[in-house]
Amino acid sequence: MTQMTRRMALATMGAALATPAYLEKAHAAEVTLRVAHFLPGVAPMQTRFFDVWAKEISDASEGAIEFQMFPAMQLGGKAPQLADQARQGISDISWTLPVYTPDRFPVAETFALPFMVRNAEKTSIAMHQLMEEFGQDEYRGLKPLAFHTHDGGKFHMRGQRINAAEDLKGLKLRAPNQATGEMLTLMGAETVFFPVTEMVVGLSNGVIDGCCLPYEVVPAYKLQELTTVSNEPEAGGRGIYCNTFSLVMNERKYEGLSDDLRKVIDDHSGADLSRRLGAQFDEFEAFGRSMVEKQGNEIHTIPAAEIERWREMAAPIYDTWAKKLEDAGLDGTAIVARADELLDAQG
């Protein structure tokens, strides 16, 4: 060993011995959490939320918690299986939609009824409160981290303007959930339901004429290239529909963490995270709309008076949903009324 090499080795050893204990901990992860979801890795949900949130938790834990991201169902299976993947330990954390498994999480689905949305932030605040009051038993085996929604959906069509319910008659539409599908069927549309991941094929091959989705989905699936007209409700009232989301963690994994690491997870979940997710989805919505405008697609406004007529047509759906909740042993009338009250309280 040359004198120079010996000096370098001694210097390296000295630096290692002098490294503070907290820096050593910061580089030695105690637990790695696998996060699974269905959107592409380039989607804003990954790049602007999950990546940022993961870093915040890693920093707060001084590196004791690290994450592995598995977007686009990279752990296998299909989107409706995400909640079960977290329960079974295939993933440690899953982000999923209750509507992908209809009637299984009925309280969490309640805000997916037609016209139960303002913007995403306000509706997410209301949803989290509803779940705290009525939905605590729905996610057994899982640790709920947040509940939220997206902004109200719009009709993205391959060429059709929608001014009235009659314009939907005979159109083949991808329905975003069962309750909205029932409403569209009442208005004469022919509806099909499949996960958003399969929507591109349906639009490309003409199986459907359009879909009802928020603008935030546009960039991930290049929806602006598959449709030419986006029909949105006149501003000021409630939106047509929203879907609800659950961010859930394997309960055993959570309980197996040390007290200090559970506190880090707790500090980065709950009502504040639900509100934050809703606010971010409002940002995603604005960006998605800008992509439609940049493409040169038409953005058509559905008159407020017509939307009110649709709300009246949808009234029986609320009664049916309340009955469904009651059949599940819940106070359906109280849950639907409370959801409406919480939404109104958001202004």
From TrEMBL:
PROSITE patterns: TAT. Pfam families: DctP. GO terms for cellular component: periplasmic space. GO terms for biological process: transmembrane transport. This is TRAP-type C4-dicarboxylate transporter periplasmic protein. It comes from Celeribacter indicus. Keywords: Periplasm, Signal. The keyword Signal applies. Its main location: periplasm. It is found in: Periplasm. NCBIfam families: TRAP_S1.
